[in-house]
Amino acid sequence: MRKKCIVSDLDGTLLKEGEERLPEEFFDGIRELRSRKIDFVVASGRSYGDLKKLLAPVLYEVTMICEEGAAIIQKGKMLHCRPISRETVEHWVKEAKRQKAELLLAGKHTCYTEYENEGLRSRYQKQRRAVMPVRDVREVTEPVLRMSFFLGSGEKGGWIRRKGEKDHEVRISFQDESWLDLVLAEADKGSALQWLLKERGLSVEEVLVFGDNTNDIPMFHLVPDSFAMKWAKEEVRREAGYESACVMESVREFLKRQL
C-alpha cells in the first residue's frame, strides 16, 4: 500500500548522539516528501519549545508528537493533549519540596523550574533547551505534560523512582543516572500516533515508523512497517521489522518500491 506518512523519533534517530542540529539534507528531504503529498511526523520526548527551534526551517511542514506522546502540535496549534491532572502535579510538587528534590515542569510552550535550581537550569541551557525560571512552580498555569526530576545520587533518586513506580496516575517515561521523567500513565508515542492516524483517516499500512529506543516500541507495534536504527539495543531492534542507518535514505529506498 502507498505510504502517506513517515513518523520518526528525534534523538538517536534523526539526531545522532552528540549532534545539536539537524542537517540541511534532512530539511530538503522533508520538502521532497511534502511535494509528493507525504506527511512527516516527529515523535519525541522533547518539549514543543525544543522541537520548534530544531525544526524551524520546516516548522509548518511537519507535525510534532511532543513530551512522549502527551501532546500533538501542528502549525503551532495543539491538536491533542494528555496533561497530568493539577491534583497530581501539586502532590508531586509538595513531595519534591519536602525531599528538597529539583523539579522541572514541562508545558506546551516551555519548561519551568524555580530560580533556586540554578544547577538544573544550567544543565538544560547547556543543551540549548528552553527553560523559564519562576518563583514557585505551583504558579505555572498552563497544562503540565511532563514532570522531570534531577536525581542526583543516593536515597533521593531511589525515593523518586519507587514513588513513580507506585503512582498509577503517571508512568516513568524516561530515566537514567541523572534524570527521571513522569508523564500521564495513558500517554505514550504509540497511543498519540494511533489518535493522529484516526484523526487523518490513515490506516497503519500507510505509515513508516523509525526509532531507536524503548519508548519507540509502542509505535513499532502499531504499524507493520517499522525501522529500528542499527545502533539501537537488541531489545529495541527485535521489535521492529527492519533496520536503518539513515531515516531519509531508508524512506527513499522504501518509496522506490511503490513506483
From TrEMBL:
A GO term from the CC aspect: cytosol
GO molecular function, one term: magnesium ion binding
Record's keyword annotation contains Hydrolase: yes
Keywords: Hydrolase
Entries under InterPro entries matching the protein: HAD-like_sf, HAD-SF_hydro_IIB, HAD_sf
Pfam family, one: Hydrolase_3
Coiled coil: none
Xref: PANTHER family: 5-AMINO-6-(5-PHOSPHO-D-RIBITYLAMINO)URACIL PHOSPHATASE YBJI-RELATED (PTHR10000:SF53), PHOSPHOSERINE PHOSPHATASE (PTHR10000)
Protein name, per record: HAD-IIB family hydrolase
Provenance organism: Suipraeoptans intestinalis
